[in-house]
Amino acid sequence: MQTLLSWSSGKDSAWALHLLRQQPDVDVVGLVTTVNAAFDRVAMHGVRRTLVEAQAEAAGLPLPQFRVESVGRIFASILADLLPKLFRAHLPPRNSNDGKIRREQSFLGQIV
Predict the structure, then answer these.
(1) Model pLDDT, residue 70
(2) Domains: count for the chain
(3) Which of 20, 57, 70, 72 has the fewest Cβ atoms within 10 angstroms?
(4) Strand pairing partners for 6?
């Protein structure tokens, strides 16, 4: 299963990536992070954007970034709007005849 991993730049994200890469049925195809536009830093830990970009490069994965003004105030609405776009950009479309719920709809239903 192709997977996008939410990446905060911290040790828990790195550990999650390590564990996911050990799963034969999981293919991590990208890391996703939010960047505070005012400070040009990762919203969760405040590290420089260039550091998280270097982490993604070292992992050999693309890093889609959401630039936001205020993470706490609008985080859920940003994710609800942008995650479907991410899924379409990074995951191949599924056959609509297979009877399965589209991944982005399923995932968004869990976070909203």
Answers:
(1) 64
(2) 1
(3) 72
(4) 32
Give this prediction's pTM: 0.64
Q: Which residues of 13-52 are buried (b: 16+ CB within 10 A; e: fewer)?
A: beebbeeeeeeeeeebebbbbbbbeeeebbbbeeeebeeb
Give the pLDDT confidence of 3-57 residue by residue, as tens digits. 889 888 889 999 999 999 999 999 999 998 888 888 888 877 788 889 999 999 9
Q: Read off the tokens for 47.
A: 């590290």
Q: Which domain holds residue 93?
A: 2-111
Query: How distant, in Å, are the alpha carbons of 24, 35, 44, 99 from that of 75?
Result: 32, 11, 11, 31
| Helix axes of 71-90 and 103-111: crossing angle, nearest 10 degrees | 170
